[in-house]
């Protein structure tokens, strides 16, 4: 990604780089069953830690930020914009999802050894990369762009029928 960003910056055109967080749609069917196959049994098998903080984003917000960047290139041009609605601990995220769905969810956190042996798997590698990224996101800066980001609770409400059908 870094090489592509460098090419974009050097391209001679007005640019804005959007850096979205963890897509909340990963928690909706059918994607949740592909990314977390055990979720069919209400188990969230993962390589995060319970206190890991994820940068959550409603993918619709990415479109809203992209539109804003096209509409106001003077404001957004030459900037790297984090697109994140909220930073949330994995265990808190699962608790909120439990409340919204009305169903219990068991979090299964892989041990360090299990994670090490599964590093080559695409989703495990993604989990590892996500750990600690929240420290690079200033939520007040995100809000300062004038595009209201979606909170996790708002996302859950917007998708309540899909979540309850899981």
Automatic annotation (TrEMBL):
Domain NmrA-like intervals: 1-109
Cellular component terms per the entry's GO annotation: nucleus
Domain of life: Eukaryota
UniProt keyword annotation of Transferase present: no
Keyword Cell division (UniProt): no
InterPro entries registered for this protein in UniProt: NAD(P)-bd_dom_sf, NmrA-like, NmrA-like_oxidored
UniProt entry keywords in alphabetical sequence: NADP, Oxidoreductase
GO molecular function (one): oxidoreductase activity
Gene3D superfamilies cross-referenced by the UniProt entry: NAD(P)-binding Rossmann-like Domain
Family named by the database record: Belongs to the NmrA-type oxidoreductase family.
Protein name according to UniProt: NmrA-like domain-containing protein
């Amino acid at each position: 990604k870094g090489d592509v960003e460098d090419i974009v910056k050097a391209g001679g055109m007005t640019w804005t780089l959007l850096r979205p967080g963890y897509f909340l749609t990963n928690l909706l069917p059918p994607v949740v069953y592909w990314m977390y196959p055990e979720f069919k049994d209400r188990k969230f098998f993962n390589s995060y830690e319970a206190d890991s903080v994820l940068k959550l984003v409603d993918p619709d917000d990415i479109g809203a930020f992209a539109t804003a960047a096209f509409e106001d290139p003077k404001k957004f041009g030459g900037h790297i914009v984090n697109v994140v609605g909220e930073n949330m601990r994995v265990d808190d995220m699962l608790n909120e999802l439990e409340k919204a769905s009305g169903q219990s969810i068991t979090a299964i956190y892989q041990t360090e050894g299990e994670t090490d042996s599964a590093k080559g798997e695409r989703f495990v590698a993604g989990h590892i990369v996500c750990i600690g990224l929240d420290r690079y996101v200033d939520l007040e800066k995100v809000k300062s762009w004038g595009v209201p980001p979606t909170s996790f609770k708002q996302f859950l409400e917007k998708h309540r029928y899909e979540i309850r059908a899981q």
